[in-house]
């Protein structure tokens, strides 16, 4: 008989994958949408940013709600709502109506937090990095394999279907229908936790005072900052690269430009389990790879991957300025590798550091991290830049202060108290009920 943890991991992964297909399904069709609504390149950058505008707050809210109600409930409701508004966007007669419906449909991005919490409720601590990596990695691939690679081929230029003549309208409609169906399945089939003890520990609830305390711990703050510069960057590039390869290199073919963009998003998704697994291995074997954070094994790997991301971004600007699109695609691939490893490392740490509040912390880290997805596209397409290639170096420069914060928090004497010490709030509020650590089976 199949262990229920694998069934629930499959449900969470399918939810997240489809969620990312819907979230980023706008990007491959920017040419057609721009033509229909009369948008400029700068306006496309604003649209790409608006596509994630509802996600940060949504993730922050859905985290403690998932802890309290359980993943099957929040996943089911979220998928149905997202699906309905994706369907509505397919029939939008004006750009204003289209934009509003896509902003609500973009709540598909909060499925990440729901899944992180659900997986943490089913897997033991020593395998959390790998399990969360599989969930998030395969799920993230929805942006590449689904939105960038599959949708443009199913709904390519010249598409004519039974309901729509516009390819992008058909893509939004059918992915919305799939979301409604999966939402119903998730609610009926999913189980909230492996044991009743785990379920009660998560269900205990988080008050406003407790949430503020958790959100201001050193560990939550630094992981949120790290996620801004990794997942935030991934979200930004998923929504921007198709436009970049078309406008920066004059590549006008929809399928080819989308395929180039998919090399980043597929890499950023599929390699994420490896990033989490390496974090698990270093922690289990107590292996030091950096001398500055001795004994803090997960932190060492997380920091190393963050530095790689910054260096790779400078490399992407250099590759773009060379004028060679294939070199730029390879540089984008390396950025994707860095994002994958770093995101896997970060979400190996989140449930390991905060086992009783994995949904809440995942919502904080995931929500704040998504902010990068709104800000970075504005820098990529900033009108004051001499060309589209320089934006990557500008973004890399903004990440250096975040690296400095990470160096400070990851010092062993600070890192060992990163879940107790913090800013703003000094005293931990009393829990609403007694809790049992979800590491106890």
Automatic annotation (TrEMBL):
One of its GO terms (cellular component) is membrane. InterPro entries: MFS, MFS_dom, MFS_trans_sf, NO3_transporter. SUPFAM superfamilies: MFS general substrate transporter. It is a multi-pass membrane protein. Its main location: membrane. One of its GO terms (molecular function) is nitrate transmembrane transporter activity. Pfam families: MFS_1. GO terms for biological process: nitrate assimilation. Keywords: Membrane, Nitrate assimilation, Transmembrane, Transmembrane helix. Residues 7-413 form the Major facilitator superfamily (MFS) profile domain. PANTHER family: HIGH-AFFINITY NITRATE TRANSPORTER 2.3. This is MFS transporter, NNP family, nitrate/nitrite transporter. It comes from Natronorubrum sediminis. The lineage of its organism: Archaea, Methanobacteriati, Methanobacteriota, Stenosarchaea group, Halobacteria.
């Amino acid at each position: 008989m199949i262990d229920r943890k694998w069934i629930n991991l499959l449900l969470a992964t399918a939810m997240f994958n489809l969620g990312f297909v819907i979230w980023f399904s706008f990007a491959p069709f920017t040419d057609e949408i721009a033509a229909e609504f009369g948008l400029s390149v700068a306006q496309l950058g604003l649209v790409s940013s608006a596509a994630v505008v509802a996600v940060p707050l949504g993730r922050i809210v859905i985290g403690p709600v998932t802890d309290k109600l359980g993943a099957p409930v929040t996943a089911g409701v979220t998928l149905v709502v997202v699906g309905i508004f994706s369907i509505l966007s397919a029939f939008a007669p004006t750009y204003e109506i289209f934009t509003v419906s896509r902003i609500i449909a973009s709540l598909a991005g909060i499925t990440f937090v729901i899944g992180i919490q659900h997986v943490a409720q089913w897997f033991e601590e020593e395998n959390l990095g790998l399990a969360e990596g599989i969930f998030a990695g395969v799920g993230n691939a929805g942006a590449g394999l689904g939105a960038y690679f599959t949708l443009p081929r199913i709904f390519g230029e010249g598409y004519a279907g039974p309901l729509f003549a516009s390819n992008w309208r058909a893509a939004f409609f059918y992915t919305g229908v799939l979301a409604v169906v999966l939402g119903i399945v998730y609610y009926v089939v999913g189980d909230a936790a492996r044991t009743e003890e785990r379920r009660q520990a998560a269900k205990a609830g988080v008050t406003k005072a407790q949430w503020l305390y958790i959100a201001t711990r050193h560990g939550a703050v630094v992981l949120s900052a790290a996620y801004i510069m990794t997942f935030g960057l991934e979200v930004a590039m998923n929504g921007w690269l198709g436009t970049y390869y078309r406008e920066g290199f004059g590549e006008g073919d929809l399928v080819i430009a989308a395929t180039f963009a998919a090399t980043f998003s597929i890499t950023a998704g599929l390699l994420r389990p490896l990033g989490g697994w390496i974090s698990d291995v270093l922690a289990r074997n107590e292996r030091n790879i950096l001398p500055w954070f001795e004994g803090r094994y997960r932190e060492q790997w997380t920091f190393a991957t963050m530095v790689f991301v910054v260096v790779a971004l400078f490399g992407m600007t250099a590759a773009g300025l060379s004028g060679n699109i294939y070199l730029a695609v390879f540089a984008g691939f390396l950025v994707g590798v860095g994002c994958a490893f770093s995101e896997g490392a970060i979400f190996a740490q989140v449930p390991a550091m905060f086992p009783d509040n994995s949904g809440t912390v995942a919502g904080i880290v995931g929500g704040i991290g998504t902010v990068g997805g709104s800000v970075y596209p504005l820098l990529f397409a900033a009108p004051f830049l001499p060309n589209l290639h320089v934006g990557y170096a500008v973004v890399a420069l903004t990440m250096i202060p975040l690296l400095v914060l990470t160096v400070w928090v990851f010092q062993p004497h600070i890192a060992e108290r990163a879940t107790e010490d913090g800013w703003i709030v000094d005293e931990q509020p009393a829990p609403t009920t007694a809790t049992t650590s979800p590491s106890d089976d």
